[in-house]
Amino acid sequence: MRHVAFQRLHNFRDLGGYLAGDGRMVRWKRLYRSDSLAKLDGDDWDRFLGLGVRTVIDLRYPWEIAAKGRVPERQGMAYVNLSVEHRPYDQAEIDPDVDPWRYLADRYAEVAADGAGELRQALEVIAAGDGPLVFHCASGKDRTGILAALVLSLAGVPEDQIVEDFALTGLATDRLVADWRAAHPSRVLRWPGYGRAPAEVMRLFLADLTSRHGSVRGYAADVLGVDDDLVLRLRAALLTDDPTATPG
């Protein structure tokens, strides 16, 4: 139910169905996360159009978009580029001897600090959305995982469910690695953790935010300037009072 099958997209998922602490549930078919939508064409494009997406948030660098392309333009579909990461690094070249999950959690902390303006804008776009919305980066793992964690946390979804959602990228790892090898036939994939998203990374990242700000909500208030009004608008846009609703 959660994964939407495409030929060229490997990590497209519905964020619906997660229960918030107040008994409400994230609406199905309202908020999606994905790897790069620049890969959409043919039958995949038709399948995407069938979802009725009204807004796309592209979290990649402008230079990534220039090199790899963006989601095809479509009348009535808004496109926003919010590059949340400000310190680029090449995951394929990470030193295999470093603690990989601590390393990634530290890179996520940089995004949480450097990309505060863009993350705040992304939350505003999601809260104001009047229909299905998808946000994505290149692999749909790191930058996308950070925004998904923030949105779900502010919606009241418990940490265990947020961590479980993050780790679902592991189901796409083999295909993400295959795509990298196809795109870089002359390179060696130095880091064995490429494409993986173990739960420990997200737990470390959320623990770091809590240690510094008391909670994810505290981080959002302190760093992003998220007030109660924005949280209420996010919850109104994303949550349903019917916990028995299905994605049908």
A few lines on this structure:
The chain is 44% helix and 9% strand. It has 248 residues and is an alpha/beta fold.
What can you see in these coordinates?
With 248 residues, the chain is of the alpha/beta class. Helices cover 44% and strands 9% of the residues. A five-stranded mixed beta sheet has the order 1-3-6-4-5, covered by helices on one side. Strand 4, helix 2 and strand 5 form a beta-alpha-beta unit. Helix 4 packs across helix 10 and helix 8 crosses helix 9. The longest helix is centred in the middle third of the chain and has 15 residues. The protein is globular and about 50 Å long. The chain starts with 12 loop residues before the first strand and ends in an 8-residue tail after the last strand.
Strand content: 5-15%
Q: Mean of residue pLDDT?
A: 96
Structural class: alpha/beta
Helix content: 40-55%
- The oligomeric status of these chains comes to single chain
Name the helix and strand elements from N-terminus to C-terminus, one letter apiece. EEEHEHEHHEHHHHHHE
What is the makeup of the main sheet? 5 strands, mixed
**How would the global form be characterised?**
globular
Query: Number of helical segments?
Result: 10
| C-alpha Rg (nearest Å) | 17 Å
